[in-house]
Amino acid sequence: MTVVSREATVFLSALIDWVSLHRFIVNMNEVIVSFPDASIDYRQHPECYRIGHGERGVFHVQPYKDELLPLWAIRNEADAKQAITDIHDRYLDYRRQDDFAGMDMARKYLQMGYTRARRYARYPGGRKKDADGRARQPRNADAEKAHIAELYRESLDRVRDDEVYQNAKREYQRRLRSAKR
């Protein structure tokens, strides 16, 4: 059994408090949660969701991660086609439920399919660096992955061009701006 001194206990307690405080930004009477925070159910608290850049949040935004990640695949063309269909169907479900966070997360999984498949298409094994840490030159390493990337891109473009998605995104951004005032 390890005995910890009182000073060490106080130090650790202060450190834990600092880390907890760091996760929150206190602004007047408003507490803004850092994004993404895997402890939040974003379906119940969509006001905490942030669109973010690119694929940010795909592995942390619950419950969408648990719903979408098992569907996602780029292993081969057949698996990718099924994944694209399943993710797009889930997107349509979220759309019917007026769940913008879910719609946007489905878009992010389609985007992740596109970017990951492109990486594997251009770099052997998806690795941008060789064993010595030197950058590899991109090339056409895998034609099947390039085709998978195009399939994901087509579905991603359908979502991005969807008027309902665009309107929901604008409305969501408008609500966030008005909440900050």
Question: What does it look like?
Answer:
The protein has 181 residues and is mainly alpha-helical. It has 6 helices and 2 strands; from the N terminus they run αββααααα. The protein has helices spanning 6-22, 64-68, 77-96, 100-122, 143-161, 163-180; strands spanning 24-27, 30-33. A two-stranded antiparallel ribbon has the order 1-2. Strand 1 and strand 2 form a beta hairpin.
Q: Could you say which structural class the secondary elements and strand pairing correspond to?
A: mainly alpha
Strand order of the largest sheet: 1-2
Q: What share of the residues lie within helices?
A: 55-70%
The ordered H/E elements are: HEEHHHHH
The number of distinct helices, counting runs of at least 4 residues, comes to: 6
Detail the topology: elements first, then pairings:
Blueprint: H1 6-22, E1 24-27, E2 30-33, H2 64-68, H3 77-96, H4 100-122, H5 143-161, H6 163-180
Antiparallel strand pairs: 1-2
Helix pairs in contact: 3-4, 3-5, 4-5
Please give a handful of descriptors for the protein shown.
181 residues, 6 helices, mainly alpha, two-stranded antiparallel ribbon
Question: What is the compact description of this entry?
Answer:
The protein has a two-stranded antiparallel sheet with strand order 1-2.
